[in-house]
Design a protein that fits this description.
- There is one protein chain.
- The chain is 70% helix and 0% strand.
- It is an all-alpha fold and 162 residues long.
- It has one domain (7-160).
- The N and C termini lie far apart (52 Å).
Amino acid sequence: MNKSVSPKTVFTDPVHFLAFGFGSGLAPWAPGTAGTLVAVLLEWPMRSQSLELRLLVAAAMFAVGVWICGESARKLDAHDHPGIVWDEFAGYFLTMVLAPEGWIWSLVGFALFRFFDILKPWPIREIDHRLGGGIGIMVDDTFAGVFAGVILWGIAQTLVYL
């Protein structure tokens, strides 16, 4: 597999453009982190929306991401190319579903999501190794988003009662 993907490939193919997080996955170092940073900016307007809408958006991002990430990986002949970061977008949006409004929560959510996405503790690592295609690309970040979101929610709830 050739890990290098040209900007021309990403910016001329709509599937790669989305899978590579509008180009953020082309970052030479830590493309997943770069993609998550873009997700922070994209998710910010969701902070004031209803829980139902936030859940709907997160679910839609997952559903669409299964196809987008799978198709991009197929075209690149790579299982999970590091530049494919739509899964980070969806995972971060899921992390933030129950988060309170405010930049501090976005930053804490970012840190928690990256922690779980990078370290992939059990069962995330197990899931990552067992599933292929678009679902495999998406599911490990979904679990990272759930873990991060639960902890973020727990921190927020604890602070409410202090």
